[in-house]
Amino acid sequence: MNFNTTIGWIGLGNMGVPMVRQLLTAGYPVTVYNRHKEKEALILAEGANSAESPAAMLQVAEVVFLMVSDDQAIRDLFTGEQGLLQSPATSKLIVNMSTVSPGISREMATLCQEHKHEYLDAPVSGSVKQAETGQLAIMVGGKETAFERAKPILEKIGKLALHLGEAGAGNTAKLAMNTLLGFQAQGLAEAVLFAQQRGINTSDLLTLIQNSALASVFINTKGQVILNNNYDAAFALKLLAKDLRLAAAEGSATPLAEVVNKTFQQAEASFGDEDVMAIFKYLER
Ligand code: NA7
Fold first, then answer.
1. Rounded distance, CA 216 to CA 241, Å?
2. Residues within 6 Å of ligand 1 by CB
3. Global ipTM
4. What pTM was estimated for this model as a whole?
């Protein structure tokens, strides 16, 4: 891969736009596609080109990335009318960075192989801030040869790109990470509530935690969310609820995962658009 490699990018949401910016800044030619075309205007003004459809994109791009919402979006974009696999092109590399189920990645990897393309799942850890600074951590599933092909580009988007195994391994790792994120969010909420109900000041409790072996960037950041009573979504609760559902659908849930999944599913109706830490407001009611 060199800087003449034409990159295709599907999905210009909150994450997609800053990730494309990193690639433009690195000097790659980028062709974009978004279902609602009006969202393309911003990034076209910054030097990207537009493709009429995913199939048309595969005619011009050697490597295509996807950053979209869910399994259904992936299915539509690969197999729908004018989808990627409707193109007669071969030998392309398709990198799915969306947080989706390991199952759909295995399915798309098989379809890609039938169409003589390579497929990687490469979901990310980190949010918009990390996307804006190229500091995402990228977990990758798929063939080693495909990973080596994608690596120079992934390194422009993230600080780490780690190959974990066959197709679906990246998605599995992402679900493991977000399961832990759910535990930590609910754990912090419950510790603050326990202390508050017994007269301990929240700010004092957080200071104690940050000066103990439990200190972490996560607790520091999310502790501030509770203290400032500002639940604007850095990572929306409904997205974590989606990931916990995907993890549960993998079967053989462990005891804590079952409880935390249940709590987030119940909280989603009232607090879905707020930050994950709004789990505190749900438990406080
Ligand atoms: P956003 O900002 O909600 O953006 C979602 C993107 O997915 C956006 O480009 C959508 O296109 C696209 N989308 C959703 N459904 C479809 C279908 N059916 N077909 C085509 N395109 C679709 O999400 P983020 O950028 O924050 O996050 C993306 C991923 O990272 C996600 O997996 C998270 O869990 C983590 P639209 O603009 O609506 O036309």
1. 22
2. 11-16, 34-36, 39, 67-69, 72-73, 76-77, 98-99, 239
3. 0.98
4. 0.94
